[in-house]
Amino acid sequence: MKTNKYCFNCNDEVVTNIVEEMEVFNVKGMDISILSKKRVCSVCNEEIFDKELDSNTLYEVYEQYKKLNHLLTSEEIKKIRNKYGISQKGLALLLGWGEKTITRYENGSIQNNSHDTVLKSINEYQNFIVFWSKNKDKLSEMERDKVEENLYKDITSFTLKVVYKKPKQYTNVNSFVMVNDLKENEYRMAVV
């Protein structure tokens, strides 16, 4: 895509082009090769700073590093968060992390191994529920309701198989308590 930008080498506003070039970036001691896009002057072929292109390149470099080191990618983190219908800030608070931590990870920052392990673990409902039961009060009532609705919908759709049908029978299913105090074969679920 051609765009006019100021070229310091030509000392003039010039038409620019985007070119692709293999580059090697060192990330935490590991060399990552990537085909990056750069903006160049169409007159002198000098590279011209383009914040968006540079940001996209760094994002791709960090995502490649994550894949090579078996860390969750930004999209995988977002997918886990969306599974529960929780905001970035809400998930960070639920996990006991800084408010902007999940935002940074979803925008491409590389998470440390301990945070990655926690994020991988909460992809399983029973592990998410551990954090939920300890820290849900840090969230707004509206967000708690939304997450509980998602948890109930998702878990009941494929994991609940209650065998006993006695009134007031309590069955522990993935850290939820199913309470049969309704009509025959009707159950409600409460987060414990």
Concise structural overview:
This protein is α+β, with helices and mostly antiparallel strands and 192 residues long.
What features would you describe in this structure?
The structure is a single chain. This protein has 192 residues and is α+β, with helices and mostly antiparallel strands. The chain has 7 helices and 7 strands, in the order ββββαααααααβββ. The protein has a domain at 3-50. The protein has helices at residues 51-68, 74-84, 88-94, 101-106, 113-121, 125-135, 141-158; strands spanning 3-7, 12-27, 30-41, 47-48, 169-173, 176-180, 188-191. The strands form 2 sheets. Strands 1-2-3-4 form a 4-stranded antiparallel beta sheet, with helices on one face. Strand 1 (3-7) and strand 2 form a beta hairpin. It starts with a strand and ends with a strand. Mean pLDDT is 84; it is low at 158-192.
Mean pLDDT over the residues:
84
Q: Structural class, judged by helices and strands?
A: alpha+beta
Strand order of the largest sheet: 1-2-3-4
The number of helical elements comes to 7
Beta strands, count: 7
Largest sheet: 4 strands, antiparallel
User: From the alpha-carbon coordinates, what is the Rg to the nearest angstrom?
Assistant: 24 Å
Share of helix, binned: 40-55%
Order of helices and strands: EEEEHHHHHHHEEE
Shape: elongated
| Ends apart, CA distance between termini | 55 Å
The low-confidence parts are 158-192
Strand percentage lies at 25-35%
SSE diagram, text form:
Layout: E1 3-7, E2 12-27, E3 30-41, E4 47-48, H1 51-68, H2 74-84, H3 88-94, H4 101-106, H5 113-121, H6 125-135, H7 141-158, E5 169-173, E6 176-180, E7 188-191
